[in-house]
Structure of histidine kinase:
Amino acid sequence: MGGTTDPDGDEAVLSLSLDGRITDAGDGARTLLGYHPHELFGRPVEDVIPEPGGLLSGPGHDLSAAIGNDSSRFELSCRCADGTVFPAVVTVWRSMEEHGLTITAAIRRLSAEDQLAGAINLVGALVRSSHDAIIAADRDGMVTIWNPAAERLYGYTAAEMLGRPRSVLFPPDGQELEEERFRRTISGSHVEMFSAVRRHKDGRLLTVAATISPIADARGHIIGAAGFSRDIGETNRAQSMFRGLLNALPIGIIGIGEDGLIRFVNPETERLFGYGAEEVLGLPVERLIPRSGAEEQDLHGVRKDGSRFPAEVSLSPIDVGSETLISATVVDTTDRIAAEAERTRLEQELNAALRLESVGQLAGGVAHHFNNLLAIIDSHAGFVAEELSGPVTGASVREALTDIAQIRKTVDRASEYARQLLAFGRREVARPVRHDISRTVADVYALLAHSIGDDITITTNAHKDLPPVVVDPGQLEQTLVNLALNARDAMPHGGRLSITAEPCTKSVPGARPSRQVKIRVTDTGTGMPPEVLERAFEPFYTTKDPVSFAGMGLAVAHGMVTAAGGEINIASDPGRGTTVVIMLPADDVLEPRRGTGDPVAGAGAERDGRRTILVVDDEPDLREVVRRMLGKSGYDVLIAADGHEALDRARAHDGSIDLLITDIMMPEMSGTELAEKLREFRDGLPVLFMSGYAAPVLTEKGSLDPGTVLLQKPFRKQELITAVENVLSVPV
């Protein structure tokens, strides 16, 4: 130690290792830093220079890398042994000694003059780099400082303005006010920020935000004033544009502070709520839009008069510097809600009109078909009357019998049309059983192979491992036949028709995959354009000749398939053909099912003695027909026109009543209600329902509940007697 010497006591010289540790110290360390030289040995230089800055900026604190080849000078703060800190100038250099490279740091206290010079340099740098114009003037108003920002703002260079009166910047009508501000400032007053108009070198006027403060010397005497100014003309124009846009918006805008109080409102808000701006500024926003805990779309605004309106409110934050405001846009949705309600009403009216159109089309089709059939029946009935009104001969009887046969044939046709209508509406009685579709495909092929036409090639293919489905086999066969006949009509010049059935799996999101049977009926016919395809399932909608009685095939197919829990879809390409796809759910039950409503065992069993049957129907002629049919077959018959009369007849009858035959659809009391009431005092009474519309006794799938027997109208005598015998043969 002691190898390092100090030129004087105001300077401490330290020797440093390359990693920044003190290896030697001169005696000046005692005077300047308060350390004995040996106390500093091995200490890191940070103990003396707490923030060495660029002194240790080299990689790994390599001082030689930081210093380079020349000496370096730093203005830093140094710390004495007692912890006090003082400003210092640290000069560092390196030299090569016998033992290697040596780093030397000389620390000297920064003098007051140095500090003042440094402060002046700092202030000068700040003035030069400021984005605001900084102008200083002596007590006479002559410019003493003019920074680059002032040059940019006012157009004068510093050389042009130094020594000139600051008044060159003031327009004539602002001279007096500016001079008054200057006089107050050099009297010791500090003027807060103000807005002023200044004149540019080119003569244009500028709007500036400015402030002015007094300048004092070391003794506190005011020697002039300094001011800052900034062009706010662009800001004012932007603010003016913003206010204009805000005022022109057709929606309410409310500015809300972090405390929930209203900071500003635009004119539309005043109009919406009926308040003037001055009435709501500072009020809680809940005064206008109460908190309801409801969703945003359920909010309501409250007007000054207390009335309410539905409001849509959107919130967004706005950073205004000192705080974050919430901008709330408010829209009165009264008109929108009314418009939506009107649109809904118009949609409902349109849907009703479309339904009426469909009903009209359906009614027209029904009337067309049944009027034709009634005309045929009436004509043949007239022929019978003519043939039997004169002398009865063998020839006239034969002709009458022929006409009667034609009448019955026409009735069968009418019954089939009624059945198709019920199938379309899913009101026909279905007798679903566990069925192998391949049998139906084979039966349809056998039926069509020699009847569909020589110019049409028909092929069928049923997969050998088809799972069974639960369906009414007769309805399924009729559906496939109808689709095949439609395909035939679409191929007037011949073509190919194929019917296939294959197993498949249907996947529905959120549900387990289900096994299905897919049936395809494909033709190479004319196809359907989109406008026809869209209406393909409508009843009686057809592009064929109206006299062909067409238009129910696809509608009936749709009714049958949906009743079986399946789906039916059509794909068609005009000029290339049509494919109808039927999807039916597979049945995974192992044991075969019997269809509900099937004939029961023991049908046709011999009856013991005469039976009494109560017949109830609100149609007088039909009551009489049934009475005659039953009477001719040896039954005693009681008749009633409605449920109430039937109850009276049953109570008044002393003997047994073996069977109730009742219509289902009757005024005041239905057939099912009548059966329940009769069984209250005639326990176990068998019931045979008859109806042309079976909906009240059908399940959701279109079948009958177990034990329910239905005879569909119209029926013939043998059908009636067979049904009666079947019901009576079941033990009570």
In short: Residues 57-61, 545-551, 589-608 have pLDDT under 50 and may be disordered. The radius of gyration is 54 Å.
